Amino acid sequence: MKASGQISRRTLLRAGMGMGAGLLILPFSRARGAELPNNKLNIAVIGVGGRGAGDLAGVSSENIVALCDLNANNLAAAAKKYPNAKTYVDWRLCLEHKGLDAVVCATTDHTHAFVNIWAMNRGLHVYCEKPLANSVHEARLVRETYLKHKGKLATQMGTQIHASDNFRRVVELIRDGAIGTPQEARVWCSRLPKGGSYLPAEPVPAHLNWDLWLGPSREHPYNAGYMGGCLAWNRFWDFGSGQIGDMGSHMMDLAWWAFDLRFPTSCEATGTPVNPDTCPEWLTATWEHPATDKRPAVKVYWYDGGKKPGMPNSAFDREKLFKGHIFKGTEGTLVADYDLRILVPKSNMTKYHAPTEASLIPPSVGHHQEWINACKTGSPTLCNFDYAGTLIEHNLLALVAYRAGKKLQWDAANLKATNCPEADGFIRKTYRDGWTLNG
């Protein structure tokens, strides 16, 4: 069966083969669903407010047997919808729930790696919101733990846009030579995060277990300014990893997929002056990736906090592209966003042929459903913890380079910057007494 929208997409593409250098706007198509097995998983959802509420809805076709949240208000609201689920405040106790098959993790970033590793160590399938971890070392350990269980456990990072048809079309075009031989990818997000310092003490509200919210991080007094979602707490080093950790997980995903990236050989980054409390208000970074049997060496660039790359054509309104990707090759450039793809060829495209049926990427059954199916049947997930682990490690390496203030020559096998021993202090985190990462 042909992928949704294939005829109109191919027809339009061929119609533009004879045109000279210019803009080729490619249409958007929607994904189709699929039928599922009747058996149901016993799932625990850890973190049921905010993004967790969306994840809970995404797996609601299964048996929701356990709910966990350190916010009593969030927990009570979720329990009303799932009255048969047992409730927990401490995720470590939730993981011991009898008969559990799988876990959805939607906690704050600084506990993601802990929940992921503990769950996999207990033989549980895991779906985790992005990013998988909050340090390079944590990302590596999450990935290594998954690889120990590969073939037995299904994992998926919550980069839901990966399931879109548009991302698939961009990957197909690049892999099939629409831009020629790949040379570089430039990725950006224009969110403007705040800097500042850790916040002063305020009374802890009765509905919140602040000690569990802190989890493995250093001691800090409660302040309402840390609440309110990732944009509130993510800017602090002990709790998040700024825009490269947050939106970088979504935006870099497309470059990672299209260029089939793995471990870089170098990384350098600049930003606002280093602040011991908060992530940079803007950051630019460059990674060098070695050649593979599928492509030559390429460079990847990142921009956030209002920084943007130059556009490949004057027809683009640079200021309106809040976030996006520019893929450059020997024969042209492709500009993309979540639901946009525009091909800018260097000359006429008479040598280029549209993707063949064999090279098409099938439409997604849905990002959550893909993971559910994998838990039941062993089918693959596209954002498993091997793929996502290397992506997050790569992104967080930029923060290491930024804090070290030096271009890093990266030895991925040994998790070490060979030319910068001071980077070691930013690759790994230290944790509060009583908290073990590999538990």
Question: Main attributes?
Answer:
globular, alpha/beta, six-stranded parallel sheet, ten-stranded mixed sheet, 439 residues, 19% strand
Note down, in words, how this protein is organized:
29% of the residues lie in helices and 19% in strands. The protein has a domain at 42-161: Rossmann fold (3-Layer(aba) Sandwich), CATH 3.40.50. Helix 5 (109-121) packs parallel to helix 6 (136-148), helix 6 (136-148) packs antiparallel against helix 13 and helix 11 packs across helix 13 (385-404). The model is unreliable at 1-37 (pLDDT under 50). It is α/β, with parallel strands linked by helices. It starts with 5 loop residues before the first helix and ends in a 12-residue tail after the last helix. It is built from 14 helices and 16 strands. The strands form two sheets. Strands 1-14-13-12-8-11-10-9-15-16 form a ten-stranded mixed β-sheet, with helices on one face. Strands 4-3-2-5-6-7 form a six-stranded parallel β-sheet, with helices on both faces. The chain is globular and about 65 Å long.
The side-by-side strand order for the widest beta sheet comes to: 1-14-13-12-8-11-10-9-15-16
Amount of helix: 25-40%
**What would you report as the Rg, rounded to the nearest angstrom?**
22 Å
Sum up the overall morphology in one term: globular
CATH third-level topology of the domain at 42-161: Rossmann fold
Alpha-beta classification? alpha/beta
Series of secondary-structure elements, N-terminal to C-terminal? HEEHEHEHEHEHEHEHHHHEEEEEEHHEEH
Main beta sheet = 10 strands, mixed
Let me know the number of strands: 16
Spans where pLDDT lies below 50 across 5 or more residues: 1-37
Mean pLDDT: 90
Architecture per CATH nomenclature, i.e. the level-2 architecture of the domain at 42-161: 3-Layer(aba) Sandwich
The first-to-last residue Cα distance is: 46 Å
Name of the CATH homologous superfamily of the domain at 42-161? NAD(P)-binding Rossmann-like Domain
User: What is the CATH C level class of the domain at 42-161, in words?
Assistant: Alpha Beta
Number of helices: 14
Question: Strand portion, in percent?
Answer: 15-25%
